[in-house]
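Pilot study result, target chain (219 residues):
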Amino acid sequence: MRKAFDAQLQELNFELIGMSAAAEDAVNVVTSSLSTGDRQGALSAIELTRSMEGMEQDIENRCLRLLLQQQPVASDLRTISAALKMVTDLQRIGDQCANIAEISLLLQRQRQDRCLADIRAMSQKAAAMVKRAIFSYVNRDAQAARQVIALDDEVDTLFQNVKGELASRIADDRDAADQAIDLVIIAKYLERIADHGVNIARWAIFCVTGVLTPEDPAE
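Predicted structure:
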């Protein structure tokens, strides 16, 4: 019985890894479409996020079956409850990628400048945070999860850079205001994606220690 239960827990891990990979791909594809003006890339990102909805349901159903059909011990309960929380964060990441894609479809091709470079850097760090957070959960690596949380400060710094750059742009060129505001919104979505990566890391730590680290009061 225990062997079958452990096998199902492993399947749960595989499903979470698959959903996190889809989230990472969505972030990368949609941010690339911003710099290239690739309309098809934005549409592809939206399709990726739609596929995540089915993944979310599958993972939730597996978690509920594990809770109802088996007799999990305390560590198993932590694993399953953390997975249920993580899948919600992953789905929120998908929603935010879809929102970014929809905005990017309305934007003209963006010139390669410092602002867009910072947005690209934000997306890369946010995607890496999500991937590493899931890795730390699967491998029960609390130290790796803490490193993910530490990366959030770098994303926050980049967001402040983007916001400051775009505020100056609006002041200098009122005609550019609409697109600048759209880019600020996109940067804010990326900041939130990083925050969801932090949430996943916090739940990974909970799996190992049984203690949920407090949220940053500044968030």
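One observation from the pilot: Residues 2-209 form a domain with the Methane Monooxygenase Hydroxylase; Chain G, domain 1 fold (CATH 1.20.58.220). A full batch analysis is planned for the follow-on phase.
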